[in-house]
Amino acid sequence: MTDGPDFTIADVVDVAREGLIEPPGADQAVHDGTGRVNLAFTVITGPDSPPTQRSVRVPPGVTVFDSASWNGIAIDSTCGGHGTCHKCRVQIAGEGVPITRHDVRTFSPEQLDDGWRLACLVNATRDLAVQVPPLTTRPKAATVGVGRQVILHPAIQKRYVELDEPTLADQRTDLVRLTDAITDLELTADLHVLRRLPTVLRAADFKVTAVIVDEDLIDVEPGDTTSTRYAIAFDLGTTTVVATLLDVGTGTPVAVASMLNKQQPFGGDVISRISATMMDKDTLGRLQEAAGATLAELASDVCREGGVDPAQVYEVAIAGNATMTALALGIDPEPIGVAPFVMATSQPPSVLATDLGLSLHPRARAVFFPALGAYVGGDIVAGMLATGMDRDKRTRLFIDVGTNCEIVLSDGDTILSTAAPAGPAFEGGAIRCGMRAADGAIEVIKVDPAAEPGTDPVILGVIGDVEPRGLCGSGLVDAVAELVRVGLLDDSGRFISEEAAKEIAPAIADRLTKLGEERVFLLHRPTPHADPAECVYLSQRDVRELQFAKAAISTGWTLLLEQLGLEHRDIQQVLLAGSFGSYLSPASAVRIGLVPRLPVLRIVAAGNVAGEGAKMALLSLRERTGATALLEEVAYVELSDRPDFNDKFVEQLAFGG
Amino acid sequence: MTDGPDFTIADVVDVAREGLIEPPGADQAVHDGTGRVNLAFTVITGPDSPPTQRSVRVPPGVTVFDSASWNGIAIDSTCGGHGTCHKCRVQIAGEGVPITRHDVRTFSPEQLDDGWRLACLVNATRDLAVQVPPLTTRPKAATVGVGRQVILHPAIQKRYVELDEPTLADQRTDLVRLTDAITDLELTADLHVLRRLPTVLRAADFKVTAVIVDEDLIDVEPGDTTSTRYAIAFDLGTTTVVATLLDVGTGTPVAVASMLNKQQPFGGDVISRISATMMDKDTLGRLQEAAGATLAELASDVCREGGVDPAQVYEVAIAGNATMTALALGIDPEPIGVAPFVMATSQPPSVLATDLGLSLHPRARAVFFPALGAYVGGDIVAGMLATGMDRDKRTRLFIDVGTNCEIVLSDGDTILSTAAPAGPAFEGGAIRCGMRAADGAIEVIKVDPAAEPGTDPVILGVIGDVEPRGLCGSGLVDAVAELVRVGLLDDSGRFISEEAAKEIAPAIADRLTKLGEERVFLLHRPTPHADPAECVYLSQRDVRELQFAKAAISTGWTLLLEQLGLEHRDIQQVLLAGSFGSYLSPASAVRIGLVPRLPVLRIVAAGNVAGEGAKMALLSLRERTGATALLEEVAYVELSDRPDFNDKFVEQLAFGG
User: Fold this and answer.
1) Which of A160-169, A317-326, B492-501, B635-644 has the lowest mean pLDDT?
2) Which one, A197, A247, A491, B225, has the greatest CB density within 10 A?
3) What is the complex's ipTM, to 2 decimals?
4) Does the bond joining A340 to the residue before it have cis omega, within 30 degrees of 0?
5) DSSP secondary structure letters along A313-331
6) Least CB-CB distance to B344: which of A190, A197, A340?
């Protein structure tokens, strides 16, 4: 790709990282009054190193422990912030910090007077200065998402224990014997593990590894198996599904695989799949099976590739839009598909992976991301988590371009989200020569009417470096943007006359021709004088399709900006999410008005943020809680309810302006 | 039956009821210092009726709400004591009762000063005087167990709601729309109900009944179905299984059925069934299936008999001993069967009834009673609940006679339990003419050596009024007791010589004869001079078997009495539990020393207390919590660990004394 995004993921990481930490003294006054509190952490690393200063901003009410964890500051803890391990000791300056019964058990009266508290029990309701003592355990952290530093606190925990054998004087039950040895967690055991417990304990001479997910004891394994704990993160897309096998003990991805969603035969987008369920009552079951089969095949692929026993995969996290989530769970999506667009629930229950058709550990859990609305689903919530939309004080616009386009706008305090019905243009649908981004698709286009004679004035980037077969979404955007730039398309989206074309761009004017009654611009000619029908071309109707799509999207973010009283220029960063976003040229996106007219430096591709969010949820229970918190923090704006939507839409149809 | 227990259940009810209420001024000083607190309730029923005074004693720390509920005093509540409905308002005299945040939300500062509090949030840690205002709702109560008045607070709740239909301005999810209408409960929904929710809501025009078990929303039903909610209580015995179908809305039993446990072919007692699992690894699965098939057939029977759709049965409660519970759940019972006798868990997890093989509501739950020890199981915990062993200030001895005999002793403060290995004598096992209590079994025996000539000096009560075929447990006890009484058996348990018999009881001396080398007493002769082998008789070895059985039991309660520093005469009531206990003659039980030597008025049959306890758990969440609390309150004494057991056992072998 010769002309991809101007920024790599690595650049984004650095930019986003800065955003996570409040520069001392920088415009705090603006934000402090409007719903965030400031926590100044002094982190003591050891007797020989100077303490580190870190200042973070969080919504009021977040615990000190979470505030630290969310921002990559490590505080001792083994229970994950449940108030049971009594390890997350910090010293808080000033008076008036409430004392809980756990604090009384943990600290001496003198220590309490000195401000010592358990960090997981202090809610930050005002600015605080917090001193963090050196770690007694060594937590590991991983960098995930867009520069998110995640401290490893996976839901999956393993504990190796060597238990005393029972005697007549010690008839504790097998379960109590085990849980007595794991004092920092309050474990519950289901029938599956109780069935295995007596046999495994005795076969292993009472030396076993407890497998714990959250606070559920899901298994006991003979001997010490603490080094093997795996999970799978799924990005369950309407078109493509991606699986990442993670070693949650180290945060390392072990294997990645992707494939087309096996639901494709039922329709390319969510609406056609919902329609399919409405026409035949058996289709819901078949779509559910297809989703399960897709996840199962990918799970099997990544385990094989990673050399991991599927029985050592104890949890999966799935980020999908509301329809994909409903279909995977076998919940009727019809009310999502018709006005007023209502989900059965925004927070799907956790289920067993085996209930979805996955052959992993028999008690492996599958957790789905919650959804903000019928068209701002779990994939977007995962994306917000991965991009830290709620942890960054900058004004940022997040756009996931697709048939349904999700838009999130944050001014550092308020976060709004909406969905815009862009239609299938970006997936290559409804475009004469449109195709998905596969081999043979033109994905990059540069037009240079002043090219040296003998040099091709239309330069094409083609996926797979093969003979061009069609035009994918990013190529479509490039084509229109370039033709607007050189003037062959006017601002209203109409091809100029052939005469005018010869005048302003003689080198390419011969490519502007007709196919039947419709005007087309030939992008690729297999032979210099090939019939237009044999060429890859852009038609007048294609341009109209793209205009409608981009107008829907720009109407969305325009209305969100208005709602927060912001102008284009206030936006400090535009994140283009999803695989389409990663391939789109920021300059072309600006040119056609798909994104606000901003310096291209501010427009960055964020990659597969849904998958990254799913990984974060598996690596950190804190982050998972953060995803649920987004449901409270982010407002959902329903565009179809807006009386001014149509007027705005018409305003946004033109290019330029 | 001409000579059954001297007391009926109804008598017991009255006796036990009195025990629940502290007589004013009666020996309070003795008990108040040793672990109970006294709550004096003044119940105001209305403006025209005088208030009722009730004084109850509970373990310290029990909430005021529970203390009232356990003792049949109704306080308004719809949430079942979770602090969410804010209805259980009471006025507490004196100062120093803590104020919770829920109290602050519920009462004015003046009311708080006047002692108003939510009863479910006040722990009774000292004596309190509590005024209960008139009810604004009308709770129903049922009398269950041994005189236990249970206020109906079943886990199963139904709520009929009429919801607003969604609009673009109100896109709440289906689940939130429903739960918003049920504000006093914090409901969770599983996948099953989420799959039904969208369809049922729309098909029923958003007028539905929520089916709730505890705080789990398990279903939504179209229209108003609040009047139909059922549950089944199971007494899962080693020999016999009893099912009671309950209308939990009224507390009424709708149908009862019983049958032999289908596990019988694998052995008559728990040890033989455990042995069966140890000899063939497939046997555990077959025993599990047999248990499930027994429960399923009974469930089907009671539903048919009661005319109730099985899909309207939303919960079952199962009281069984530790082995029956483990087998029903498919948990390997081997560690229960061999020293040191260890259970996998004392608190089995709640499972779906369908997982046990029952075809009821697909999300109906099955809850098992917790166990105190490997041989004091859930059936005994249920029995303690039904007899109020922990709510009664009297010194009471509870004995469930069987192959394994469970014994519980309470002095009104401390409760001890143990298990005595009585062996199969009481089930008719190891007895020459022994049989189960079925048609043809001699169950009552009266011997009158001074009977008028022409009158039979041995009067038999036979089950089914048919020709006697054998001797069941109560007949065995009667036979031995009567022969000891008339002197044909001496105190050591030996038949006296035929010469001596002719002297002291000439009318029956001819029945004392020999069969082979063994001396026998002929109980029933089909013809006057029938061969002894054709008769129903009691052999010398039968007497030895009974001696061993009764010595095991009396050693058990003797050691418990010693541990509490009590004498026989301190015992105010002996409860004989189980079907065997109901048929046993108290006088005979005293005569052979199976129970302490007490006036027979103090010895009462308590009936199927395990089944009654299961009913209570279904009718009242409070009572269910009470069952779990017993695990903390009751100490388990392991007899096989006692160095003095054998000495005591030998002392107890003799009759009389």
Assistant:
1) B635-644
2) A197
3) 0.80
4) yes
5) EEEEEEEE-HHHHHHHHT-
6) A197
Distance from CA of A533 to the nearest CA of B (A): 45
- Token digits for B177? 């729309």
Contact B341 A194 (CB under 8 A): no
DSSP three-state, residue B75: coil
CA-closest candidate to residue A656, choices A597, A571, A568, A581: A597
Lowest mean pLDDT among A1-5, A358-362, B598-602: A1-5
> Cβ of B197 under 8 Å from any chain A Cβ?
yes
Q: Which residues of chain B does A167 touch, with a Cβ-Cβ cutoff of 8 Å?
A: 340
Distance between CA atoms of residues A119 and A605, nearest Å: 36
Q: Specify the residue for token string 């997910």.
A: A213
Structural contact between residues B600 and B587, judged by C-beta atoms closer than 8 angstroms: yes
Phi and psi at A152, nearest 5°, equal -70, 110
pLDDT at B19: 32
User: Does the pLDDT value for residue B141 go beyond 80?
Assistant: no
- Residue B61: count of CB within 10 angstroms of its CB: 11
Out of A53-62, A118-127, B71-80, least confident range = B71-80
Residue A2 pLDDT:
36
The DSSP 8-state label assigned to residue B101 in this structure reads: H
Residue B319 β-bridge partners:
B235
pLDDT confidence of residue A524: 95
| Residue B36 confidence class, pLDDT cut points 50, 70, 90 | low
Q: B132 pairs with which residues across the strands?
A: B43
Q: What distances in angstroms separate CA A558 from CA A216, A571, A598, A611, one per listed residue?
A: 46, 12, 14, 28
Q: What is the pLDDT of residue A78?
A: 66
Tokens 């005299």 sit on residue: B93
Neighbouring-strand partners of residue B57:
B38
Please state the separation of Cα B425 from the chain's center in Å: 23
CA distance B568 to B590: 12
User: Contact, B535 vs B637, CB < 8 A?
Assistant: no
For every residue of B167-230, DSSP letters joined together read BTTB---HHHHHHHT-TTS--EE-HHHHHHHHHHHHHTTTEEEEEEETTEEEEEEES--TT--E
Could you tell me which of A506, A541, A547, A546 has the C-alpha nearest to residue A520? A541
Q: B632 exposed, middle or buried (CB, 10 Å; 0-12, 13-18, 19+)?
A: exposed
Q: What are A192's two structure tokens? A: 């599956």
Cβ atoms within 10 Å of B582's Cβ, excluding its own: 18
* Straight-line distance from the first to the last Cα atom of chain A, in angstroms, rounded to the nearest whole number: 30
Nearest CA in chain B to A326: B195
Q: Is any Cβ of chain A less than 8 angstroms from the Cβ of B167?
A: yes
pTM for the whole structure:
0.80
User: Shortest CA distance to A426 belongs to which of A472, A395, A391, A463?
Assistant: A472
Q: Does A309 touch chain B (CB under 8 A)?
A: no
Structure tokens at B207: 């007028």
> Residue A555 is inside which H or E element, if any?
helix A540-564
**B495: closest CA among B655, B333, B308?**
B655
Strand, coil or helix: A480: helix
CA of residue A473 relative to chain centroid, distance: 21
pLDDT of residue B79: 64
A 479-498 residues inside an 8 A Cβ radius of B? none
Distance (Å, whole) CA B504 – CA B221: 75
Residue B39: strand, helix, or coil:
strand
Task: Using alpha carbons, select from A651, A627, A15 the residue that is nearest to residue A319.
Answer: A627
Partner A contacted by B292 (CB < 8 A): no
Opening angle at CA A122, ends A116 and A125, nearest 5 = 125
pLDDT at A223: 97
**For helices A473-486 and A540-564, angle between their N-to-C axes, nearest 10 degrees:** 90
- The nearest CA of chain B is from the CA of A328 a distance in Å of 11
Residue with tokens 């009730």: B54
Q: What angle do CA B380, B382, B385 make, to 5 degrees?
A: 110
